[in-house]
Amino acid sequence: MGYQAQYIHPDLKLSRFDDKFYKADVLFEHHLLVWFISGETKIVQGDTTYLFGAGDTLLFPRNQLVTVINYPKDGLPHQSAVMHLTPKRLTDFYSRNKVDVKRIQTPKFQSFNQHPLLQSCLASLVPYFDLNETLPDVIAALKIDEAITILRTIDADIDHILANFDEPGKIGLTDFMEQHYMFNMSIDKFGYLTGRSLTTFKRDFKRTFQTTPQKWLTNKRLELAHYQIREKRRRPSDVYLEVGFENLSHFGHAFKKRFGYSPTELAD
């Protein structure tokens, strides 16, 4: 059995992975507050990798690209309780709690380790998943308000993330693409994150790089894979996902077309 998501409310779910591992490049539309119940999670953001286990709590800011790899561990599936902190919920909350928001250029995800207040709040959701009916919105709203209040209590700067409802502004393409090309995202998502429509993104990209986004992304990912295999002596099967390919066969075909030999030949 692979992935299961059990929703008791549109903003509250229990997530479960039973496979050997699950890897995805993710971009969340909402802030997510996640409590890991079992299993292990590796998160790659930029050139930094973080590892989390059962009991840890994280806040994923919206509109941030990260790579997430979930593993079962100790005979248990990877399981987590997830709370969506949507703009509507946060707007309602902050309409009652006025704050001055400082703009943060690139908010990082926040780790709260095994903070007892957050653990208690999110662990209290688990029995609700035994219900055979949707959790009433009034109860869900109380739990979400509780979580936001706890976050504000234990992190004095969290308002600068939660109360900032700005959409991504237009930014330079060169630095952004060089930092994020290995993420397996659609072209329109890259456009959104750089503050452009799809048409404008393609036009600006061609002007900046003298090629199309897809050709540039493929070449950059293949060059990174070539470096990892030749210089770091890594196996092709361990590399292709990390550099942005979804399929090992497609990766091998593209690699040979680009370099004239297969990744397996390079690794030998």
From TrEMBL:
Record InterPro entries: AraC_XylS_family_regulators, ExsA-like_N, Homeodomain-like_sf, HTH-like, HTH_AraC
Residue ranges of every copy of the HTH araC/xylS-type domain listed in the record: 171-268
Domain of life: Bacteria
Key words, A-Z: DNA-binding, Transcription, Transcription regulation
GO terms of molecular function: DNA-binding transcription factor activity; sequence-specific DNA binding
Alphabetized Gene3D superfamilies for the sequence: Homeodomain-like (1.10.10.60)
PANTHER family for this protein: HTH-TYPE TRANSCRIPTIONAL ACTIVATOR RHAS-RELATED
Protein name: Helix-turn-helix transcriptional regulator
Lineage: Bacteria, Pseudomonadati, Bacteroidota, Cytophagia, Cytophagales
